Amino acid sequence: MDAAESSSAASAGSSSGSGGSGGSSGGSSFFFPPAAQPEVMRAAEKDEHYVASLCDACHEAFRHAMGTRLAVAYQNETKLAGRVLYYLLTTGAGLQTLGEEYCDISQVVVNTKLPATPARRTLLVFYQTVLPYLTERLSARAAARGNVLANQEELRGSELMGMRQESTSEIVSEDTVMIRRRTPIQVWHSWSERVRQRYNAAIQQWPIILPSVKEALLLVLRAHLMLFYFEGTVLL
């Protein structure tokens, strides 16, 4: 979405160009050269260092104010607060992050070479901080819900194991008679029940496929980082 561009090389080039060409280059447009991969990676490493320090400070402040038990229970939330605070005060405010200032680069829009709008900066902060937190929380809750449903299915299966085959056939025959005489309300309830059963089945399978999904995402991130190292491009 955004590209980081160097400001030091651009300022040097503009000063040399103005001194050598005079008025001939006065009307030409000039853009900063794109930042190299090492500069972007070094800025990201610096930002992660400062974010970790701010997260630790938020955790310590919360622990002193609310106690150790609540600090341990809400350590993910205090970490989120530190990350949101750091990027809101830098990227969200239209300023350079400490890592970008250290490497003398800044974020601009690729097409216009201008700073991003406030809405775009807010969306970038959301993607960088809140979205990973929400994804992790929803995934953990889905995994816990899947384990509960799996246990309930095991208990229900043990209870139904003692039923006779004759009673099962009678229930099935009664259900088929009722299906022929269903009203629209009954059709709606049957459809919603079917959707709920499929949703519960998917939730039950989520704890099983979650490790594979994490491994796949980690592989994609590593491949993306490798592509950025060699080509300097970002996949969106």
From TrEMBL:
Membrane topology category: Multi-pass membrane protein
One annotated GO biological process: protein import into peroxisome matrix
Broad class of where this protein is predominantly found: membrane
Record flagged with keyword Transcription: no
The protein's name: RING-type E3 ubiquitin transferase
Family: Belongs to the pex2/pex10/pex12 family.
Enzymatic reactions: S-ubiquitinyl-[E2 ubiquitin-conjugating enzyme]-L-cysteine + [acceptor protein]-L-lysine = [E2 ubiquitin-conjugating enzyme]-L-cysteine + N(6)-ubiquitinyl-[acceptor protein]-L-lysine
Cellular localisation: Peroxisome membrane
Domain Pex N-terminal: 47-233
EC code: 2.3.2.27
Organism: Ceratodon purpureus (Fire moss)
Family annotation (Pfam families): Pex2_Pex12
A molecular-function term among this protein's GO annotations: zinc ion binding
GO cellular component: peroxisomal membrane
Top-tier EC class: transferase
The keyword Transmembrane helix is annotated on this UniProt entry: yes
Swiss-Prot/TrEMBL keywords: Membrane, Metal-binding, Peroxisome, Protein transport, Transferase, Transmembrane, Transmembrane helix, Transport, Ubl conjugation pathway, Zinc, Zinc-finger
Biased composition (Low complexity): 1-15
Taxonomic placement: Eukaryota, Viridiplantae, Streptophyta, Embryophyta, Bryophyta
Disordered as annotated region, ranges: 1-21
The protein's annotated pathway: Protein modification; protein ubiquitination
